[in-house]
Write a structure and sequence with these properties.
By secondary structure, the protein is mainly beta. It has one helix spanning about 55-60; strands at about 5-10, 15-20, 20-25, 30-35, 40. The radius of gyration is 13 Å and the shape is globular. It starts with 6 loop residues before the first strand and ends in a 10-residue tail after the last helix.
Length: about 70
Protein backbone atom coordinates (compact mmCIF):
# COMPACT_ATOMS: atom_id res chain seq x y z
CA UNK A 1 0.00 0.00 0.00
CA UNK A 2 1.40 3.37 -1.00
CA UNK A 3 0.75 6.08 1.56
CA UNK A 4 1.51 9.46 -0.02
CA UNK A 5 3.71 11.62 2.17
CA UNK A 6 4.32 8.94 4.81
CA UNK A 7 7.90 7.84 5.44
CA UNK A 8 9.27 5.27 7.90
CA UNK A 9 12.95 5.74 8.71
CA UNK A 10 14.88 2.86 10.29
CA UNK A 11 17.26 4.80 12.53
CA UNK A 12 20.58 3.21 13.44
CA UNK A 13 20.32 1.54 16.87
CA UNK A 14 17.31 3.72 17.68
CA UNK A 15 13.55 3.91 17.17
CA UNK A 16 11.51 3.97 13.98
CA UNK A 17 10.78 7.56 12.90
CA UNK A 18 7.47 7.88 11.06
CA UNK A 19 6.72 11.11 9.21
CA UNK A 20 3.04 11.87 8.66
CA UNK A 21 0.34 12.37 7.86
CA UNK A 22 -0.63 9.32 9.90
CA UNK A 23 -3.26 8.30 12.43
CA UNK A 24 -2.28 6.18 15.44
CA UNK A 25 -5.16 4.29 17.06
CA UNK A 26 -4.79 2.89 20.59
CA UNK A 27 -6.49 -0.20 22.04
CA UNK A 28 -9.49 1.88 23.15
CA UNK A 29 -10.00 3.32 19.67
CA UNK A 30 -8.61 6.75 20.56
CA UNK A 31 -6.92 8.36 17.56
CA UNK A 32 -3.75 10.44 17.62
CA UNK A 33 -3.12 12.48 14.49
CA UNK A 34 0.39 13.22 13.25
CA UNK A 35 0.05 15.98 10.62
CA UNK A 36 1.83 16.05 7.29
CA UNK A 37 5.52 16.80 7.68
CA UNK A 38 5.56 16.13 11.44
CA UNK A 39 7.01 12.95 12.92
CA UNK A 40 6.82 10.53 15.81
CA UNK A 41 9.36 7.88 16.83
CA UNK A 42 8.32 4.40 17.92
CA UNK A 43 10.38 2.38 20.40
CA UNK A 44 12.32 -0.64 19.09
CA UNK A 45 14.36 -1.47 22.19
CA UNK A 46 11.42 -2.23 24.50
CA UNK A 47 12.78 -0.08 27.36
CA UNK A 48 10.86 3.17 26.79
CA UNK A 49 8.76 4.44 29.70
CA UNK A 50 6.45 6.04 27.12
CA UNK A 51 5.61 3.04 24.89
CA UNK A 52 4.88 2.79 22.07
CA UNK A 53 6.88 6.00 21.66
CA UNK A 54 10.65 6.30 21.95
CA UNK A 55 12.04 8.21 24.95
CA UNK A 56 15.72 7.57 24.05
CA UNK A 57 16.05 4.73 26.61
CA UNK A 58 17.93 2.83 23.88
CA UNK A 59 20.97 5.00 24.67
CA UNK A 60 21.05 3.81 28.30
CA UNK A 61 20.81 0.12 27.39
CA UNK A 62 23.28 0.20 24.45
CA UNK A 63 20.57 -1.01 22.08
CA UNK A 64 21.86 -2.44 18.82
CA UNK A 65 19.70 -3.63 15.95
CA UNK A 66 19.85 -4.14 12.23
CA UNK A 67 19.12 -0.79 10.64
CA UNK A 68 19.16 -1.70 6.95
CA UNK A 69 16.00 -2.52 5.04
CA UNK A 70 16.50 -5.77 3.14
Amino acid sequence: ILMAGVNIEIRENAGLRVTGPITITDKDGKNYEIPEGEWVTFCRCGKSENKPFCDSAHRDVSFEAESVAK
